[in-house]
Amino acid sequence: MAKLLLVDDNQDLLGMQGEFLRMSGHEVETATNGEEAIAHAASSHFDLIITDIIMPTKDGIEVIITLRKTMPALKVIAISGGGRLNAKDYLSIAQKLGAAATLAKPFSGSELVATVDRVLAN
After folding, report:
1. 52-80: b or e for each residue (b if 16 or more CB lie within 10 Å)?
2. Is 68 helix (H, G, I), strand (E, B) or coil?
3. Exposed / middle / buried, residue 109 (Cβ in 10 Å: 0-12, 13-18, 19+)
4. Domains and their CATH numbers in the chain
């Protein structure tokens, strides 16, 4: 069982994704924006952070940059449904900045769990 931080400004997706991860045996905490995510990461140990890219306050790119500077060993999965750019463009940037894996929305619960398990195994 791993301790995960799930970050997304969409409450419905946050709840659904969190439930899939809990059902697969992981402990899950949540945050609804990048500032909350960075504060949670600074105050608690996580094995993995899953962050959306397009969010208010601080976006996922800023979260990844901050985490790479302050906690370079922490594994990150970036997720995105796109915005001004195509989701693949945002996810490509996230991977170049150090995300261990990426998922384009929409994705299934089984895809999320498989990606989390693969990243944690490496």
Report:
1. bbbbeebbbbbbbebbeeebeebbbbbbb
2. helix
3. middle
4. 3-108 (3.40.50.2300)
Pairing status of strand 101-104 against strand 27-31: unpaired
Q: Are 62 and 76 in contact (CB under 8 A)?
A: no
Q: Name the strand (E) or helix (H) holding 29.
A: strand 27-31
- pLDDT tens for the chain, 122 residues: list them: 999 999 999 999 999 999 999 999 999 999 999 999 999 999 999 999 999 999 988 999 999 999 999 999 999 999 998 767 677 899 999 999 999 999 999 999 999 999 999 999 99
pTM over the 0.70 mark: yes
Identify the sign of the CA torsion 63, 65, 66, 68: positive
